[in-house]
Amino acid sequence: MKISRAIVLGLTIVLGAPFAVAAGDAAAGKGAYAVCAACHGPNGEGNVAMRAPRLAGQGGWYIERQLKSFQAGHRGSKPGDSDGMQMRGLAMSVSSPEAMANLIAYIETLPSKASATTVQGDAAAGKTLYMTCGACHGQNAEGSEQMGGPRLAGLDDWYIVRQLKNFKGGLRGSDPADTFGRQMAPMAAVLADDAAINNVVAYINSLQ
Question: Under CATH, which number does the domain 26-107 receive?
Fold first, then answer.
């Protein structure tokens, strides 16, 4: 399944211009990050035991969008999404745009390293499946602010699997106001089963 250039351009028009993150004070954001570090790690490296993904290396524009999505209840308000509900409560503690900008500025200073591989799959088969994903997430999973697709390369593979299943199961992307989530839900539905999910994630792992 491929997405034509016309559709890609159409999505760009519908989704609008890239998200801009206000300049923040990383030094001020360091103190606020202490709350995040309890789950996401002191260097934003993620923690599988805490079910918290890597933050280091992710675009600040995307982190901002997700924090706002949690705050607005577009994420973390669906019954059964215990991880999202926990994160929503923490996102609510970011009390102002300035505090959010400072926090994101600090996260952007954290060193990004390759994540450990925990998911096994057929990367060759996953490459074909990823052709659809590449339209928004980039051919090398580098992410695209213009298309609203976050970086996937280097993100924890177990977290990608969980989010794909959340999209397929309606725990994420079902809120009418969640424009990007609603776009992602049918894309995840293309992956027919767990094997297909593992295959595309195995290919993403190869792009680190």
Answer: 1.10.760.10
Hey, what CATH topology would domain 5-17+115-206 get? Cytochrome Bc1 Complex; Chain D, domain 2 (1.10.760)
pLDDT in tens, 127-157: 999 999 999 999 999 999 999 999 999 999 9
- Looking at residue 52, what DSSP letter applies? B
Nearest of 186, 103, 196, 200 to residue 153 by alpha carbon: 200
Residue ranges per structural domain of the chain: 5-17+115-206, 26-107
pTM listed for this prediction: 0.86
* SS (HEC) of the chain: CCCCHHHHHHHHHHHCCCCCCCCCCHHHHHHHHHHHHHHHCCCCCCEHHHCECCCCCCCHHHHHHHHHHHHHCCCCCCCCCHHHHHHHHHHCCCCCHHHHHHHHHHHCCCCCCCCCCCCCCCHHHHHHHHHHHHHHHCCCCCCECCCCECCCCCCCHHHHHHHHHHHHHCCCCCCCCCHHHHHHHHHHHCCCCHHHHHHHHHHHHHCC
